[in-house]
Amino acid sequence: MNVTVENEIKIIQMGEGPNLLSVTRAKELMAELDYNSCKAVIILGNNKVFSAGLNLKDLMNAKEKSEVSTIFTTLRNLLVSFRQFPGPIISIVGGHAIAGGCLMALASDYRYGMFGKHRMGLNEMYIGIDLPSDMLSIISHSISRDNLFEVATQCKMYTPKEAYKKGLINEYIGSPFMGKKKATEEALKRAKELAKFYINAGEPFVRLKQSLMHDIKFDYEVLIDNWFSSETQEKVKSVISSLSKK
Fold first, then answer.
1. How far apart (Å, rounded) are the C-alpha atoms in residues 14 and 158?
2. Which residue intervals of the chain are DSSP H helices?
3. In whole angstroms, what is the distance from residue 72 CA to residue 67 CA?
């Protein structure tokens, strides 16, 4: 795993291979979600695999209930950490995103996808694994009611374009003439611009993300106090100035 920081944006490149979400790897990812060291996170896999999810061999080799519990609980904690991170988390899905890997992408706030032969989907039902309600809530935040049942239960592996139509990814970079490397570079460029936009939005974005995730009651006193802050006043003056020039 390679981690760099550019202008308060942490870029996590998970590396080559299947990028399985072992307990160790999941804990490494969680440790990087530190708002003191960055205000936004971008996650990439490689050109073949974003993440193939849990290591089934780890599950098969587990002899005690406590071992299996640790594996599933750690995945849950990873997904929760994505939702609780105050800044935006953006995933670039340029390879297979299967099962837990798909859930990790869906737990991100925004997802870029691109053309290719890779697939994205949830296969838990196929191998007889439950989708707990907290994981289902992550899916339902991204997938419309019309597509939710199909995506969650039918174990379909979607092409990138299908994944875009179903809501598994938000933005599709679909020019095959660009080449996979160029498409990834373009996705990374767009992700950095989007991350910077949310960083510049500041605390209002943090509060909005918390509201979206937890359906909490908003304190309007916070909105009013923020309106009078010097930072907000400067932004508003800048917008008014630009409009007056048109």
1. 22
2. 23-32, 56-61, 65-84, 100-107, 133-142, 145-153, 160-166, 180-201, 203-214, 220-227, 230-244
3. 9
Q: Is residue 161 a contact partner of residue 171, using CB atoms and an 8 Å limit?
A: no
Structure tokens at 168: 């598994």
* Nearest residue to 155 via CA among 102, 227, 202, 197: 102
User: The whole model's pTM is what?
Assistant: 0.85
User: What is the dihedral sign for C-alpha 172, 180, 88, 76?
Assistant: positive
Token representation of residue 53: 């999810």
The overall average pLDDT reported for the chain is 88
Distances 116 to 35, 163, 167 between C-alpha atoms, Å: 33, 12, 17
Tell me which residue of 53, 47, 40, 61 sits closest to 95, measured CA to CA. Answer: 47
The predicted-structure confidence for 183-224, as pLDDT tens digits, reads as follows 999 999 999 999 999 999 988 888 888 887 765 454 556 656
**Rounded (5°) CA angle 176-182-78:** 100
